[in-house]
Amino acid sequence: MAELDTIIENGLVVSENETKKLNIGIKEQEIAYLGDENLEAKTKINAENLFVLPGGVDPHVHVDQPSGPDVEMADNFQSATKSAAAGGNTTIIPFAMQVKGESLRKCVEDYHKKANGNLYVDTSFHLIISDPTPQVLGQELPALSKDGYTSFKVFMTYDDLVLNDKELLEVFEVAKQQKTLVMVHAEGYDAIKYLTKKLEDEGKTAPYYHEISRPEIVEREATHRAISHAQIINIPIVIVHVSGSEALNQIRWAKEKGLKVFAETCPQYICLTRDNLKGLNMDFEGAKYVCSPPPRDKQSQEAIWSGIIDGTFELFSSDHSPFRFKDSKGKDRPGARTSFRWVPNGIPGVETRLPILFSEGVSKNRISIERFVELTSTNPAKMYGMYPKKGVIKIGSDADLTIWDPNLKKTIKQEFLNHGSDYTPYEGLDITGWPLQTWLRGKCIFNNGTFSTTKNNGEYINRDYCSL
Ligand code: URP
Ligand code: ZN
Ligand code: ZN
Fold first, then answer.
1. CA dist., res. 145 & res. 466, Å (int)
2. Residue 384 located in a structural domain
3. CA 7 to ligand 3 center in whole angstroms
């Protein structure tokens, strides 16, 4: 064998449902050797007592999305991908969001302009379809699917994004023709609007009422409706960001019927509850936890764990959607003196996703290290058409690796995070297990708190179809 560029020795290599002590040889950005021989290489890394994992693939991330008047997302592509790398990720899939009235193709071009030259990790785009015009359905979406944009998200709520049932069915039909995968934000628009108005009329406008305005029933109803529509058209769907047992039971019901309904959950649904939305004393501090669906209660957290443990969830993503609590001029997040309705929805989490699931899941013996890798890297890569280039440590795969110290203890603190938000909703959470190094296509890009790369290292990844 020609001399290797790098060999990572003696690590506990976790991949494809098994863990073995192996040496990993890297040549020209790919995995070139896996075994126990002592080979020569230009660079040798000793990973004794450490896990070596396929780099994290976070398939649900929002970056630099238009978020309404006077609201800016806290991360551009540079800061989001930097934060991702520090959290042990080598690939993210943010959204190219269509603004109503705009062409989808133009929207994709705009996102490429924002991302080009600004990536610390590899990146691909899902689409968000907000305006399914005949032009979008008949021409743009089919053409973009063929160009490698093989997944898109639709919303059943939000004024600027909601699709009605007819539109959902029409979009699902295109997905069937193009073999693309639809991600569904399942919360019922009309019920939320009704409850929001009622709460506001009663003067209940604090961030806490965000959760009351979109209870689990609203999520359950929309989840069932999305599943039914997918069954009518006969397509697979992904129900994203599931928050508790109500929606989860609909997904279990669908799976038992043999329907291809995939499910995703996120750190907020195992770490936060609606009590966080109370802030200090029903004050605006609660806005730091406004996301949709909102976090529920301890029982919901246990329900989510049951789905993580029994395999109901295929994906554990961050739904990173970062806003600042105070902007750079000291101005409060919108909604401060008005109503929860105006607080931009979303919380940061791309950097803390892997440590949280490892600590709460693997270190606390709820799940195995193999299941951790499946949920956070292998399944996302398979679901969104990047496997076996991504999501696995295999000869010929990209040498995207995370060297992980299972015993390193840290307390999450805003001061050491790399995202653009000015807070983390996980401040003070004690973590056991943390990524030491992140390797992107054979190059160490993050080493123990220090970036050893410039922003240009990440590439745009063209994707294939779902292989799960
Ligand atoms: O509150 C959230 N989750 N914001 C991000 C947008 C979405 O719906 O995923
Ligand atoms: Zn959503
Ligand atoms: Zn999202």
1. 12
2. no
3. 37
